[in-house]
Design goal:
11 strands, alpha+beta, Alpha-Beta Plaits, 3 domains, Trigger factor, domain 2, 4-stranded antiparallel β-sheet, extended, about 450 residues, Chitinase A, domain 3
C-alpha cells in the first residue's frame, strides 16, 4: 500500500517520483510469497510443503524478501503512475529507472520503504504568441526564360534516340568497350568494361573518359594515353598514366522535336498552339512556386515560434524520433538494421554519431510539433463529417468500436493539419528578397 508519493521536476522535462510503501504491505507481500514457496520447496528431512516456516526463512528468507519487495515496488509503481497528473505521466518510450537501488538492499523487515524512479515527461511550456507576427519571406517572378527552360525539358523528354552514321559529338549517346592495356599493348585484366552506355558530357565512368569518344564512328577502335589526376578516386591509379583501348560499338543522338503546334498538341491535346503550351507551362510554374513560397513562409513561422519558445525536449524523445527516421531509411532501402549499421561503420560512422548529428534538427521539429498541438487544442478547429468520411475511405471491414477509435484519431489529425494554414492566414509577410524561379526551386536562397 502506498503511504505517500512525491514528484520533483528535474532538468530537460524529466521528473523523479518518490513512493513510500507501508511496512505492513511489504510484510504482507513477503508472507504471501513465503507461503507460495513453502508449498513447493523440498528440504532434506521433510516432505514437500511440510518444512517449518522458520527453517524456510532461515535458508531462503533474504532471497524471498528481495523478490517480494521488488514485486511490490513494481506493482505500486503502476498504481502511482495511473494516479499522477497527466503532465507527470511517463512518455511511451521512457521507462522509469529505479534510482539508488544499492541503497535499498538488503531490505529491512517491518520498515516503511521509500524508493524513487526517474523518467521523462512531455515538456511543459507556455504557448507563445502565434498570430499577428510580422515576418519576412522571398517572392518570385516567373520569366519567359523560366517558361522556355521548362518547355526545353519537355522537348528533351519527348526526344527519340536515333542511330547515326556520323562521328560522335557532344551530347551523343555511345555504346563502347574500353579496357586497360600494359606497356606492350596487352590487356592487363585489371579493368575491362563491356557495352558501357555513355552520354558524352554527362555520364561519369571509371577512367573519366568523355571527350575521348568525340570524333569516333561506330566500328572504330583507338588506343589513348590517359593521365589520371593525383586525387583520382581509386588510389592505385592516382597520378598515373594509363593506356586504354576504346572500341566504339554504336553512336546515337537524341532527335528532339521541333517547338511547333504539333508538339504542343502531343504534350496535351487541349493545347492547340505553342502559345497555349506556354500559357499552361507558366501557370504550372506559378503553382509550383506558390507551394514552395508557402513552405518558406511556414518555415519562417516555425523559426519565429521556436525562437520565442525554446523547449528542451528530453533525450528519450529525440532518440525515439531518430530511431524512427533510421528505421524508415533502412526499410526504404530494403535493409535490416544490422546491415544498415554495418554500411555506416564501413564509412567510419556509427548510428549513434548519426543520431547526434540529427539531434538539433529533430529537437526543432519536436518543438514545433508540441507548439502545433497546443495551438490545435486552443483553436479547436471544426472538422466536418465529409472531411472525416473522405479520410476514412472504405470502413466496411471495421468493427464499430474500431471505427469509433479510428474516427477519433483521424479527427485529431485533421485538426492538426489545419494548424499550418491557420498560421499562414493569421500572420503577415513582407518581401525579404526577389528570387528567380531556379533559385526558389533549387533552394539556393542566399542572404
Amino acid at each position: 500500500m502506498i503511504a505517500d508519493k512525491q514528484i520533483k521536476e528535474t532538468e530537460n522535462s524529466s521528473v523523479e517520483l518518490s513512493i513510500t510503501l507501508t511496512a505492513q504491505s511489504i510484510e504482507d507481500a513477503y508472507t504471501a510469497l513465503l507461503k507460495k514457496y513453502a508449498k513447493d520447496i523440498t528440504i532434506k528431512g521433510f516432505r514437500q510443503g511440510k518444512a517449518p516456516f522458520a527453517l524456510i526463512e532461515r535458508k531462503y528468507g533474504e532471497m524471498i524478501r528481495e523478490e517480494s519487495t521488488f514485486n511490490e515496488l513494481e506493482e505500486n509503481l503502476k498504481v502511482a503512475l495511473e494516479e499522477v497528473e497527466d503532465k507527470y505521466k511517463p512518455l511511451a518510450f521512457s521507462t522509469p529507472t529505479l534510482l539508488n537501488e544499492e541503497s535499498l538492499t538488503p531490505f529491512k523487515p517491518n520498515t516503511d520503504l521509500t524508493y524513487t524512479v526517474a523518467y521523462d515527461v512531455i515538456p511543459q511550456f507556455e504557448t507563445p504568441e502565434y498570430t499577428n507576427l510580422e515576418l519576412e519571406a522571398p517572392t518570385v517572378e516567373i520569366t519567359d526564360e523560366d517558361v522556355n527552360a521548362e518547355i526545353e525539358t519537355l522537348r528533351q523528354q519527348n526526344a527519340f534516340v536515333v542511330s547515326k552514321e556520323d562521328a560522335a559529338a557532344e551530347g551523343d549517346i555511345v555504346t563502347v568497350d574500353f579496357t586497360e592495356l600494359d606497356a606492350d599493348g596487352n590487356e592487363t585484366g585489371a579493368f575491362n568494361k563491356k557495352d558501357a552506355v555513355i552520354t558524352i558530357g554527362k555520364t561519369l565512368n571509371f577512367f573519366e573518359l568523355d571527350s575521348d569518344f568525340i570524333g569516333m564512328k561506330a566500328g572504330e577502335t583507338k588506343t589513348i594515353s590517359k593521365e589520371l589526376a593525383k586525387d583520382f578516386a581509386d588510389e592505385t591509379y592516382a597520378g598515373k598514366t594509363v593506356s586504354i583501348k576504346i572500341e566504339m560499338k554504336e553512336v546515337k543522338f537524341n532527335d528532339v522535336p521541333e517547338l511547333d503546334d504539333d508538339f504542343a498538341q502531343d504534350v496535351n491535346e487541349e493545347y492547340k498552339t505553342v502559345e497555349d503550351l506556354k500559357k499552361a507551362t507558366k501557370a504550372k510554374l506559378e503553382e509550383k512556386a506558390e507551394q514552395q513560397l508557402k513552405d518558406l513562409k511556414f518555415q519562417a513561422i516555425v523559426d519565429a515560434l521556436v525562437e520565442k519558445c525554446p523547449i528542451v525536449p528530453p533525450k528519450s524523445m529525440i532518440d525515439a524520433q531518430a530511431d524512427q527516421q533510421i528505421n524508415n531509411i533502412a526499410r526504404s532501402n530494403n535493409m535490416d538494421m544490422e546491415t544498415f549499421a554495418k554500411i555506416f561503420e564501413m564509412q567510419g560512422q556509427t548510428l549513434d554519431q548519426l543520431k547526434e548529428t540529427w539531434a538539433p534538427s529533430i529537437s526543432k521539429d519536436i518543438n514545433m510539433g508540441l507548439i502545433k498541438e497546443k495551438i490545435k487544442d486552443a483553436e479547436n478547429f471544426e472538422v466536418s463529417e465529409e472531411e472525416i468520411k473522405e479520410a476514412l475511405g472504405d470502413t466496411s471491414s471495421y468493427k464499430p468500436e474500431q471505427l469509433d477509435y479510428l474516427k477519433e484519431m483521424i479527427t485529431d489529425e485533421l485538426k492538426l493539419q489545419k494548424v499550418n494554414d491557420f498560421l499562414l492566414e493569421k500572420n503577415t509577410f513582407k518581401e525579404s528578397k526577389k528570387l528567380s524561379y531556379t533559385e526558389l526551386m533549387n533552394g539556393t536562397v542566399t542572404e
